[in-house]
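Researcher: We're teaching a course module on how sequence relates to structure. For the next exercise, students receive a sequence and then see the predicted structure as tokens, so they can try to spot secondary structure elements on their own. Here is the exercise chain.
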Amino acid sequence: MTAIGLNQTVLTNARIVLSDRVVEGAVEMAGGVITEIGPASARGVDLEGDYLIPGLVELHTDHLETHYAPRPKVRWHPVAAVQAHDAQIAASGITTVFDAIRVGTDEHADMGAAELRILADAVTAGVEARRLRADHFIHLRCEVSAPDCLEAFEGIMDHPLVRLASLMDHAPGQRQFASSDAYRAYYQGKLKLSDAALAEFIARRSHESVTYADRHRQALAALSHARGIALASHDDATTDHVDKARDLGISIAEFPTTLEAAKASRDAGFAILMGGPNVVRGGSHSGNVSARDLAAAGLLDILSSDYIPFSMLQAAFCLVDAVDGLDVAQAISLVTRRPAEAAGLHDRGEIALAKRADFVQVRIEDGIPIVRTVWRQGRRVL
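Model: And here is the predicted structure for the students to work with:
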């Protein structure tokens, strides 16, 4: 390790998680990138033997909307909502985030299509003003069975931060809720509907799925490919679902609900993404396939925080204990290098020369990873 220059920072006495192993030593950064990896230095910031991992790359978080619409009919100031969301994201070790924004109004959401642009513009304002700790992009969650899905997508698809779109259908009998009993239990409890109102709701959503889902999938895929927007399927349950996704040019399989669909996704060459909460809880809240089981079968490529930002980091270390043969470097790659590659972000996601200096200092206490410090492009943000 060379002497520290005026524009250089050295992080030393760390357990550095590389793409294939963990080494003890120091990392030097300058100009926002990694310039050297070597033995521990007598100078620099002492990390006290903590892990130094790449900044996490999050492809699918629903968390921004919960800050903007924390209660039914309640709206928070969009810029303040983005700031609060960004703070929690950074505190969870996430330095690159794809903020998922709903496209298409469905019956269990009280957010309209016009609010899509409000949130996207609030994210953009934060990025342009350099107020945000993490690097933000936009992920469009396209509810293909919603009548206004295509129109809403066309209104936002050329936004410069849009880099990823997922095609989903939460209608009854589809994918996550293939079981009608599970669908009834979930939505009746969530929406507080009477039996008669629930029956009307199910009939309407089923009709919309039959009417719009396939045509919207085709149109959205074509528009996305023309703009270089990466595409993800969502909640695939069968080989037929995966075959249709492959025909649409999908590259990421989000939350496959069965082992059958996960195996078919692997055969199709998709990157398989599962939720951190599924790992931490030991199973899916919807009764679908366990992410731990997929990891043990070699059918897990990416972890997402889904609805709990900290679950990404917690799940990665949880898998080290839960899955035989999975080491720390492999587990950390699920939340860093692999999601970065899937999103086409080849400048980040690993601690390697000339990569972005996005780091997280992590200490394990009582089995829980503690985020102590976060750097993005060499600048401390937490």
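Model: If you want an answer key for the exercise: The chain has one domain: 54-349. The chain has a mean pLDDT of 92.
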